[in-house]
Structures are given as C-alpha cells and as structure tokens.
Amino acid sequence: MRGSCGSKGFFGKPLPCPYDGPAYEPDDKTRYLLASVCGEELAGGPICCNSDQLEVLRDNLNEAEPLITSCPACRNNFRAFFCHFTCSSDQASFINVTSTQISSTGQTAVESLDFFVSERHGRGFFNSCKDVKVGATNGYAMDLIGEGAKDYLAFLRSMGENKPLGSPFQINFPSSVSPGMVAFDKPPRNCADNDLSSRCACVDCPQICPTLPDLPTPGTSCHVGALSCLSFTLILAYSLCLFAFTTGFSLQTVLRRREERKYGRLALVPETTSDTPLSPRSHSRDLVGASSLARYLDGEQSSHSTTAPRNVGRGVTLLDPLDSVQPRQYRLNVKLRRMFYKLGLFAASSPWATFAIVFTLMGLLNTGWSRFGVETDPVRLWVAPDSESKIRKDFFDQNFGPFYRPQQIFITSTATEEHGQLLSTKKPVLSWDHLKFWSSVEADIRALRSSPNSYSLSDVCFRPAGPEGACSWADRVEYCANAPVDCLPDFQQPLLPKYVLGGLGCNIVVSDSLAPEARERAMEWENALAQYLAQIKERALTEAGLEISYSTGISLEEEINKSTNMDVRIVVLSYLAMFFYVALTLGGGYSGRDEEGVLASLRHWAVNFPSFFWQSSPSPLSTDPHNVPHMFPRLPSKLFVGSKFTLGLFGIALVILSVASSVGLFSALGVKVTLIIAEVIPFLVLAVGVDNVFILVHELDRQNLLHGPNASAPEQSLPYPTPISPAFRRSQFDSSHTESVDAASIPLYLPPEERVARTLAKMGPSIVLSSATETLAFALGALVPMPAVRNFAIYAAGSVLLNALLQVTVFVSAMVLDLRRTEASRMDCFPCIQIPARIQLLEPTPNSGGSGTIARFIRKHYAPFILRPVIKGAVMLIFGGFFVISVISIQHIELGLDQRLALPSDSHLIRYFDDMDAYLDIGPPVYFVSHDVDITHRKGQQALCARFTTCNEFSLANILEAERKRPEASYFSDPAASWIDDFLTWLNPDVDCCRVRKRNPDIFCSPRDNPRLCRPCWAGKSPAYNITLEGLPEGEDFVRYLKQWLISPTDEDCSLGGQASYGTAISLNDARDDVVASHFRTFFNPLKSQADFIGAFDAAHRIADDMSRRTGASVFPYSLFFVFFDQYAHIVSITQQVLGLGLASVLIVTAVFLGSWRTGTIVTAVVALTVVNVMGVMGLWGISLNAISLVNLVISLGIAVEFCAHVARAFMNSNAGLTVDHPLGQERDERMSAALVDVGPSVISGITFTKLIGMCVLALTRSKLLETYYFRMWFSLIIAGALHGLVLLPVILSLAGGPGFPMQEADEEWMSTAIRSGYEYTSV
C-alpha cells in the first residue's frame, strides 16, 4: 500500500491505495516527518508511504497518545506496530490486500486486507498495554483502544474493525500465515525492561510493582470440628453438670429410700419417744405464728432448746417487749415508706389539689410543643455529629462539594409467558421496541418541568465540565456500550459502560450543593421526576412490557416520612387493647358482696323468665331469690360498681400525658423527635407504665379486704401470746380464715384515704426500684452517639420517669375517688347513678377475682412444685442449657442494618434495592483525601505520584494500585484516578495538551486558538520533559500550570484535560496559590450485603492509615455510605461498655433498695442471663447488632429488672413463720413461697400480660424495622424476663438469697401510727 486514494464518503477518512511496487527513498521533509512520528528505526531506508499517509498516521496516533503515553513500552509498541503497517519497506511480506473498492474520488482503494502478525509480537504488544491505566475514567486504556479485549487476538481484531471512528477499511489478522507470506515478528518492548524507553511505572506494569507486606492474619478462631472452642467448652461443661446432677440425684434417691426404710423399722419400737424423728423429711412445725421474726440472720442460728430465748433479730428477744415491737428494719426502706405514706395521704386527702398542682406542672412542660420538630434527614438521623466519619464528610463537602444526587432507574423486561404460564426467563430488554419506548421516556424527562418554579433537567443536572458544560448522554446505547471511546458524553470524557448503565439501568445525575437555594431547586425537580416515574411505571408495564424500579434523591427521606405516619391505627389498636385489658382486669378485686357472676345471672333469668307470666306469687320467705322471675335480668352490681373502666382509662391517659410532656420538655431543650420516638415510645411507655397501675390496684384490693367495709373480726386466736403491736399479715389471696390474731391489734375499718396511703407506702419503694432502674437503663442508651437512638433513649427515659411520678401522685388521687365511688355503690363511668343496695343474707366472703385464682394456683401448685429440691436442680440445668445455646448463638450475630427494613413494606424502594443488588455491577466510589502535604514541592509530589521513576515506592497512588491487586482484602475493583500523574502527563509535549503562545509563553492557548500560534508548554525546556520528574514545575509554577489544567476541557484532542475529570478533585486556598487538599478516586466491588459494606469500610480505613504512615501526609477515606457505617467500627466495644455500665447500675440500685448485696447480685445475674437469652434469640431470629438493637438490649436491662425487682423485694420482706430450729434453706423456701403468692399474680397479670398485649400489636405493623428490631426483640425479652423472674430467680433466691426483713410488712397499723407520730424504727 502507498498513498491515499480518496475516502469512502465525503467526510470519511482517507483510504490507502493498493500498491505492489518497490519501496522508495523519501525526501527530507517526509523523512523528518517519519522520524518525528515513528522514530529513527524507519527513517534510514526506503519506505512504502508518503507524507499524506504520515500526516494521517500522526493524527491517528495522537488520538491514542494521551491514553498510552504514561507507559513507554505500550506507546512505542503501538507506534511501531502502525508505523511498520503503514511505511515498512517489507510491508508486502506480511500484508495482503484481499479486496478493493472505488473511493469517492473514483480511485481504487483498499477495502480489506490481511495483516499477518506472529503470536510473539501480538501477545507482547497486548501484554505491554493491557494494564495501562486511564486515571480519569478509573479504567484501562485497553477499554478504550481495544474495547476491553482480554487477549491479543481480540485486541488486534478490535483495532482492525471497519467502523466510523476506527479504521476506514477492514484489517483482518489471520491466525495462520498464507503461503509466501511472513508474519510480522518485531520483538515487542516489555514494560519491565530497564530501558527507559520501555520501562513503565508500577501502576501500568504489575511486574515491577513492590509487594505490600502481607496483612496480619486475624486471630484464627479456635475450632473443634465445626464448633468454636468456646462453644465446645460450654457444651462439655454443661454435659458434665448434667451428668453430675443425674448421678447425684440417683444416689440421693437410693440413699433416702434406704434411710426411710431404716426409720420405718425404728418407728415400730415401743420405746421410741416422740422426740425421735419418724422420718428424715419430718420436721417439727411448732410455728411461732405470723408475728415471728427471722431467726437465721447472717448465719446466726438459735439454740435448739425450746426453753432458750427465741432469736427474733439482732439482740432482740420475746422477753424484751420494748424491742420486740420494733422489728428489724432497713433504714432506706423506712424513709421511703414514710415518704410515700405522707405523699399518699396528701394525694388521697386532697385529690383535687393534687390534680391542680400536677396538671399545672404538666401543662407547663407541654408548652415546649411550640418548638416541636421532626428530624427526617437520614444523615442527621443516623450519624453522630461528632463522629469521625461525619467530620470527614463535612470536610469533603466543604472542600470538594457534596456528592452528587443520583436518580437511578432500573429497566427490566417482564417474564415470558408460555401457554398462559409465566416462565422464569425474561425477554431481552435491549430490543428495538424497548429502546424506542425508553427513548420517548428520556425525552419526556429532559422536557420535564417542576412545579411551581418550572425547573428542568438542564437547570439542576450535574455538569462535570463546569457550569457551562453539558450534562446529557448520547442516545446510541448499544453502540456506546461496545465502543465508549467512540461515543462520548456531552462533556467529551470517555466513560465505561458500567458507569453509564450500571449493569442495566438509567442514571440521571443531579448536582448537589451546600447552598440551600440550589438544594431546594434540585429537590423540587426530583419531586417532579418521582411523580412522573410513578406514573410511567404503570404505562411501561402495559405498553412496553417493562418493569421499572427507581430511586430519586428525595425518595429515601420521603419513604421514611411515609413510614412515620402509616401506623397510626396500630398505635390506636394497641391502646384500645390495653385499655380493655386493664379495665376488665382491674375490677377483679371488687369485694362489695358475694354475688353470682354475669353468666349465672343471665342463666337464672332465662330459666325463670317463662314463669313470669303464669306463676302465682309465692311466699318471699320460702323462695330462693335466684328463682324469682323478672322481666329483665338482674345483673350483679359488681358489673356496674366494681368495674374500673374509668380508672383504667385514666391510667392510660396518664401514659399519653407522660409521653406528651416528655416531648414538650425535650422539644423545649432542642431535642428533635424521630421515627423511632413517634412509633415506639407510645408502646414502650404503655407497656411499662401500666404495670404500676396493676401493682397499686392489687395492693389496694388487699387493703380493702383487711380494712374495708366488709372486713370482719377473726374468729380464733392463736394458742400462744403475741406481741401487742405486730399484727397478723393477711394476704388478699387467702381463701380461709383459719389463721387469725388478736382482734384488738387490727382495726376492722379504715377510711379510704388511709387505705390508699398504706397502699402507696407499701408499693412505693417497689415502684421506685423498678422505675429508677428502667429510667437509668434508658438513659444509658443516650451513650450511643447515633442521634435517632440517642434521642429515643432520652425521650424514653423522660417518659418513664414522668409516668412514674404521675402514678404516685394523681393516680393515687384517682384511686381514692374511685374507691369512694365503689363504696357508695355508684356506677362506673356514670357516678351520678347510685345502685340501690340489695338485701344480703349470706355471710360475705372475700371475692376471688382473677388475681385470686392465680394466687391460689401459685400457693397450692406452683410454689410447692418449683421449690422442690429436684425441680430446683432441673431448673438450674434447663436455664444453664438456655445460657449455653444463647452464647453459641451470640457468636453468629451479624453487624449491620439493612436499609430496606427502615421502609414500609409496600415501598417502591424495596424493589429498587433488590434490582440494584441483582443488576448493578459497580460498587460505590471511594475517595482517599490527602491534606497537610506540600504538593507544590518535589517531596510532596513524590509522596503522591506513581507514573514517574522517582515516585516513592510506597506512594499514595502506588499503594492504591497494590491494594487493587488483592481485592479480597481491599474490596477495590478499579484503578485509582491519580490527578497528579495525569496533570504532570498533561505537560508532556508529545501529548500536545498544554499549549502557550509562541510570542508570549505566559499566556495559555485555548482550544479555539489557531494551532500555528501556539506551542507545547514544555517544548524547549531544559531539562526536557522526562519521567524522572527532573525539571517539572514546583512552587508557583506548579500552581500556575495546575490552575490552567483544572480549566482545560476534556475532549477528543486531549483526554487529559482536568476540567471534567478532576475539576472537583483539588481544593485550593482562598488566595488560590496553594493546594489545601486533594483526593484520589477509585471504586469498590459491588457491595451486596451489610458484611460487604462493613468490610469495605474497615479496609478503606486500614489503607488510609497505612498511607498516612508511609507518606507522611494526612490521608482519610470517604465514601457516601461511610457516615452510616461508622458505628460498626466501635459497636462491639460500645455494646460491652454500655451493658457493663447497665449491669453495674442495676447491681447498685437493687442492692441499695433491697438492702442486701447478696440478693442484689443474684438479681443482677438473672438480669444478665435474661439479656444473654435475648441476644441468643437475635442470632437465631436474624436480628443484627446495630445501634437500634443495642438500645433495645439496654432497655432489656431495665425491663428485666421489673420482672425481678418485685419478686426479690417481696422475698426480702416476707415472713417465713418457721420454728426456731428450722433449717435455713427451708426458711428461704417459705419466704420465697410467700413472696410468689404475694407478688406473683401482679407480675403475671400486671407485667407479663400487659407487655405482651402492648408488644404483640407491633406484629401488625407494616414497618419491617419495627417488626424486626422491636416486636421480635421485645417479645423475646418479655418471654425471657417472665421465665427468669418467675422460675429461675425464685429458685436461686431459695438457695442463696440474702437475709431479709421479715417483719417490715407485718404491721401496717403500727407502721402508720409510727409514721404519724414521728416514731423512729430501729434500723440496720
């Protein structure tokens, strides 16, 4: 071939002419041009090309020069390949023209040819170029010059294809050489050669890269088979305990039976006295009675002599009447009881004054609603303002501008249908009909106008080339995807297909700004786009068979806000369910008279109703009143008088008031409400606050039984004298009157105010214990720095505290008003209506409501069963098994919070996230920001660069490239964009990008200037431009050239211009004479799971720390998702710290309020086991560890204490009533049994059931976040708390509980008298 024979079209490239003549000697001008283009190798002999061909060759090579000039081996191989192809004198030996065509000038031109290339040269040529990077695109030169070829054959084939912006004729590369031909076999240059004309930098030649030291292998966890060593050890220890228990129990059973047979024989001997025990299990039951005190305190045991003084306390005997009337007391409880008695007496005596004072204070708190605000910004919701990632994000936004706002659309075809059935396969999405439809959609989007300001896409789009640049893509989707270098966006920088399509989709990039006006403009247009996409979603399905999922810049915030308002009915339903449960259950303790139930009344009325019409009037004295017919059924008065609908409604209203007051208080303090607060705290406070209502009402019922209008004097007295003051403590749950005391010691009737005051005096300390622990536990949640979680903890703590204060004040006043109404036989809800009293012939007996049934079951069945020695051992083993399983499960808890969970179940974003996981084949970008380094001087440049021989071996860019080669550790997928390498390469005169005026080198040439007036910036410099950095600009010159580079456009003539590629990658100071910071961009692999995101976060920070250590510069990583995953860098340690502090606070509070460190330690241990069980359920139920679940674990501490506190306090204050020679273990059993009967019903009906009802309603929510992290965790907590509080705790306390204060609750009359007279207890 030789010369040019016209072109294929009017605007086509020149076509070579077929030529089979000899080579010729060129003239000096042609030889000079040949030397400048191809070097000296071909300039010394005959050639087969003319100057026109050389000029075309020069222009074509210059297009590729910016892409490959950084690697001399690739550049020189590329030039040598095409120079020999065009001008070699041996051209005829390896080129064979196979067809010709007639050009536009009527000449015969080459149409196709065969170019025979040896495998050695082809493979070497490809290898020298395959790793050359193009920093601006975060890709490879091979993607642009070889269409992403993976081998040399594909590389040659892509360069030889006839295409508009490629070769104007077809070049074939046959794999075999035709006869008479010789393959082109010039030795290729290798990027690792020591020759500077071949050797490439590390980033373009992996063979010469230094190897990073191996990462320290994380401590490989010890395993025994498939089990971790911890799991194996626990299972082994548990198995040994199980074996020991089984063996010990079997041996004990055998020995006991042998001893029983022995004592059975002794019983037959006549001389055996009554003092001889008949059985090892028989004990003397010479009970002292209800007024007996603990005789086994702190290990002290009384004498076995029945004549010895009975120990009733420390230094107290029954012979000392002055001391015996003062039972052993705990000073703090005495003060608390005195305080609550006085508070209760005031609230009961002056209910309306109490209402006025408290409601006035609540009203003042609610004035804070004027500053009420809801936080919806995801960043301000989930990111601590002082977190490291948030500070770095702010630094990035201020210096480089905020990250753009992507609008992403995924387009997929519908499933194919065959014989009326949908198949799993889908039709191709890139069909002509689909592209035609989507082209019209894109046209609509470009023309879309927002309301009310009528903004369009051109007003808000992201412009890489600056404010005057373009922001749209070309429409030739399929062609552009295959040849990105031939299909440039409007700002003329080549982009890889995955950045445009993201696998299968459409990206619209909107600019973001720190300026509120610009952001509001973008959000307005995004809102218009979201509305349009919601409409087109239905059209696309019916008109084109396409399914669309999308996300706009405002979608996430809008969907979160939608979730906030969608569950109002769930909240209402929860409160209604709780109201009916409270109202129906609280009325169970009414004891006005012994009446038949509602169903029995209706049954008697139905049976007797027919007799109403024909039966004659019988004698009233001989007729059972139940059999007298009536026109209407005579329902029991307790249905109208004994119900507590109004009181229950008032209690729930106090819960609402406490939440509202907490919101008002903290709104006034500037704490914003969040989604969690709006939807969860009403459930939480309702479930927690109603418990105290049950406890107070149940205790008031007991007081009414003892001292109400129906109380009666005991029929018997004890056969032994009793102290005059300590009165017999009769439980509300007792069903018999066989136990009695001196009637003179108990007043038969007390006024309602006194009964209510005694109720609060007894239960107030328990309420303080549980409320203080819950408030403290919730407040500890504020240690979590995430604002949404911290605000939730603050609001929850305030709501619980305010609710407790309302319950011990205004609810007490409401109780006395309700009590007066009940005793006046006035109807509930309508107190103006008084129910007339009926004649009651039967002796009244205490009414047995629901709590009485539970109490009888506990006393007769549950307590004796749970306190049997063998059952105790079984309980310990069972809960030990729960502990082992939980610890094993905890090891499988994952970190993270799937963003899908924060969305409504019908949100369109869920489909979008699913499609993103399925189709997006690119990960998020990550920026490594360097600052505090003097980039204007050589040392700072060498610390960052990579493409020059004097760059540091472990420079920032070199480390990024080395880390990219181990993606399993770095998560990097693409080469880094190194601005400093591209900037210094831009100065290369061979690239001809940087140009200055010939007459005035201080003036830079623009792209529109005549090339004849300009010359390369570095032409004629001494030393000349080189790859050693010698002579390249420093100081002021560096900044001068840098500023020009940053405004140089990226186009076909110069792809190294910095305007589009790096316009926002460098931050200059206000004077624009120094570089403040700069960033190096790369991309992560596609991140599909939370573990991937957390791993990428950790890897980026590890790499940045390594860079800072090696380069001396300050380097930190930034990616858009880092602010949301910063918590996971410290979540495990924070969990340990917060739970540790929580357990310590529980220990201190319980030990102080219970008066026993031993019992406090037991309660704390049981609470810890409850939390461990909840964490075990997290591993089994797919609940990840994050800030939300951490706060729930802290809440678990407080709520678990509520299950345990009342039982433990009742145990400490219960009266065993055993003989002086009774074993200590039996004494604890008796105390535990009494405690279970006393508070067990309240724990079951007032704590467990109320929480279950409140939490189970959450299962109906549409929010997966609430369902997963609140319903699942709190349901597990309630079940675990009830089991540990009512099963495990009684067992442990009966085995190792601390000494109590058994007479503290015994004499309420003496206590109230002592309080009124200011009498002091003898305290310890």
TrEMBL record:
The keyword Oxidoreductase does not apply. The keyword Cytoplasm does not apply. PROSITE patterns: SSD. It is a multi-pass membrane protein. GO terms for biological process: sterol transport. It holds the Pfam family Sterol-sensing. Keywords: Disulfide bond, Glycoprotein, Lipid transport, Membrane, Signal, Transmembrane, Transmembrane helix, Transport. SUPFAM superfamilies: Multidrug efflux transporter AcrB transmembrane domain. It comes from the Eukaryota. It is found in: Membrane. GO terms for cellular component: membrane. Residues 567-817 form the SSD domain. One of its GO terms (molecular function) is sterol binding. This is Multidrug efflux transporter AcrB transmembrane domain-containing protein. The lineage of its organism: Eukaryota, Fungi, Dikarya, Basidiomycota, Agaricomycotina.
